[in-house]
Amino acid sequence: MKHLFTFALCALAIAAAAQPSFTSDNCFHVGAESTLGYGVAIIPYVDFVNETGTNHTWDFSDNNAGGPFFSWTLPTAEYIFQSGADSDHILFAESEINEYALTAFARDAFYSYSDDQDTLYIDGVYVGGNNYPSPNSPYLSFPLQFGDSVYTQSELYSGNVLIGSRTRWWIYDGYGSVQFPYGTANDVYRIRTVQIDSTYIINFSTRYDEMIWFQGATGIPVLRMQGYPTAVNAFYAGVDGAAVVSNNADLVEAVFPNPSTGTVQMSNAVVGNRYAVMSNMGVLVRTFTAKSANVSIDLHDLSSGVYFIRNLESNRSVRVVVE
Predict the structure, then answer these.
(1) Do both 144 and 34 map to the same domain?
(2) Is 313 helix (H, G, I), strand (E, B) or coil?
(3) Which terminal Cβ of the chain has fewer Cβ within 10 Å, N or C?
């Protein structure tokens, strides 16, 4: 038994050692671009934290029993990385990299590498205010070996006024592939981060939990998952399968008018396929079967907000706004 236990430990060590290190080559790059979609799941964030490992497959491709239930939007919004100088926001013009998503779920965050290219700093989020840490708080550092956990702390200033502190730790805790309804991303590194911001003035701290899956070959974060008390929000980039979606646009259901005040028309429906209407929080509202390629859907009984009409056979979702 002792020899068997020793062998198991050795096997685990070898498996971890076999995972490639995460370097700046596997991170953001100016000029990279993709498409962006959005999903939400009513599942505890910790469930996703615990699902990881060496040469792991994260399966978000369907709603199989026991699997994560996501309402995915189509990955069509433009998702680009450009230099900070190209940004419309002068505040971050000196940053080297600008991550920008042209979508209702926009991210406009600005990053910069250190001179020796071993650290990625986050300078701020445009909509989040003008507070800066001192010394500058690394977002993550390179290289990271599988299982590495790094912790940093810095004071937070607003102008010359000390208002609190920021602590952050990150860990490279997964490697493998991520499966989406529209394709599979291979050579993917999972970086998990926890950040705590506090202010001395009101003695209050806020915790941010986030995981990012970087595709090593492109440096694009193919999935970013944010943890909240009652839901998990996910932004994901179109990967290998995105071209298939764009090349088969005639196969994707369209809904109009959108926004709508009640009744919507869905074209290109697949006859015989089952559909579901779901809220933005993943709550099932109703289901129906398409009797023809053009379907009229009555949404008058729904409260104003964002909903998804999902093809339960193909897992395609169309986002619709009810006013």
Answers:
(1) yes
(2) coil
(3) N
- Whether 76 and 254 have beta carbons less than 8 Å apart is answered as no
Q: What is the DSSP string of 161-229?
A: EEEEEEEEEEEEEEEEEEEETTEEEEEEEEEEEEEEEEETTTTEEEEEEEEEEEETTT--EEEEEEE-S
- 3-state SS assignment for residue 247: helix
Secondary element (H or E) of residue 13 = helix 2-17
pTM over 0.85: no
- Domain shared by 49 and 187, yes or no: yes
Q: How would you class 248 by CB atoms within 10 Å of its CB: exposed for 0-12, middle for 13-18, buried for 19 or more?
A: exposed
Q: Can you give the CATH number for the domain in which 291 is found?
A: 2.60.40.10
Tokens 């040469």 — which residue?
55
Residues contacting residue 120 through CB under 8 Å, at least 6 positions apart: 24, 27, 28, 111, 112, 113, 138, 139, 140, 141, 142
| Of the candidates 30, 85, 38, the residue with the CA atom closest to the CA atom of residue 60 | 38
User: Which residue has better confidence, 124 or 215?
Assistant: 215
Closest by CA to 111, choosing from 88, 143, 134, 136, is 136
Instruction: Write the pLDDT tens digit of every residue in 224-265.
Output: 888 876 667 777 776 543 332 332 333 356 777 877 888 888
What whole-number distance in Å separates Cα of residue 19 and Cα of residue 54? 7
Q: What is the DSSP letter of 20?
A: P
Total Cβ atoms within 10 A of residue 223: 24
Task: Report how far residue 66's alpha carbon sits from residue 56's, in angstroms, rounded to the nearest whole number.
Answer: 17
Same domain, 185 and 279: no
Q: Which domain holds residue 258?
A: 250-322
For residues 277 and 162, membership in a common domain is answered with no
> Residues 81, 27: one domain?
yes
Tokens coding 264: 């919507």
Q: Do 212 and 272 fall within a single domain?
A: no
Would you say 175 and 55 are in contact if contact means Cβ atoms under 8 Å apart?
A: yes
List the beta bridge partners of residue 152. 168
pLDDT digits (tens, 9 = 90+) for 107-142: 567 787 776 678 888 765 544 445 555 566 678 888
